[in-house]
Amino acid sequence: MLAILKRELRAYFTSPLGYVYLAIFYAFSGVFFWQFTLALNSTDMSAVFLALFVVLMVLVPLLTMRLLADDKKQKTDQLTLTAPVSLFSLVFGKFLSAYVIFVMGVIMLPIYGFIMSTMATVSWLPILGNTLGLLLLGGIFVSGGLFVSSLTENQMIAAVGSFFINFMVLLMDTLINQLPSGLFRQIFESISIYSRYTDITQGIFSLSSVIFFLSVTGIFLFLTVRVLEKKRWA
Fold first, then answer.
1. What DSSP string describes 39-101?
2. How far apart are the first and last CA of the chain?
3. pLDDT digits (tens, 9 = 90+) for 171-195
4. Which of 39, 118, 148, 165 is most deeply packed, by most CB within 10 A?
């Protein structure tokens, strides 16, 4: 798994992709921080995190689209599938490589809090809650993108499919609000990702929410392993 992780991380930085992803993320975060906090003489970063949520919906698919689709296109997937490594190690190594890049972007956000703390009193609970929320949500975005990438050799299709999954995360609550009260609505509310995300960003931490996010990430990884297992036997 470590060999896969190192190889994929090296691939991100021997090509422009890793640098471009981080540069775009840092640029957007810097602009949003200036526009929604410093320019308004505010210490509330909730608008910054909300805007970055939308940016990540688009950026993360670009980060994950090549993970498995590129192997298919280059015809190197057969070598990977027949390598003396478990499919879970292969999938988890690729997942971690993209997730590490994702974390490298998000982990910089609390630094803005330290910058503001030199000028005013800062409430750290919303900042830490939003950071944790993005880290947990990022696991779903990355694993979902990896799963879609395992289904096609076309990177553009993988990116669009991943964006669709991310968009449905945001859209689900809107659809739930259109449902009449009843059991059906309660079931959908119980699996709503965005509502749990907003709870965490507001400082409402619960072990069940963390387990939920990790479980959804695990489901996508499991599905990816199943796709590769089918191809290995084929």
1. TTT----HHHHHHHHHHHHHHHHHHHTTTTHHHHHTT-HHHHHTSSS-HHHHHHHHHHHHHHH
2. 23
3. 777 777 676 777 777 777 777 788 8
4. 148
Contact criterion met (CB below 8 Å) for 155 and 108: no
Contact (CB, 8 A) for 57 and 95 = no
Give the domain range for residue 225: 2-233
Q: What amino acid is encoded at 32 in this protein?
A: F
Q: What is the pTM of this model?
A: 0.90
Q: Are the beta carbons of 21 and 103 closer than 8 angstroms?
A: no
Over 80: is that where the pLDDT of 167 sits? Answer: yes
Amino acid identity, position 52 = L
For the purposes of burial, counting CB atoms within 10 Å of the CB of 114, is it exposed (0-12), middle (13-18) or buried (19 or more)? exposed
Q: How many CA atoms lie within 13 A of 177 on its CB side?
A: 7
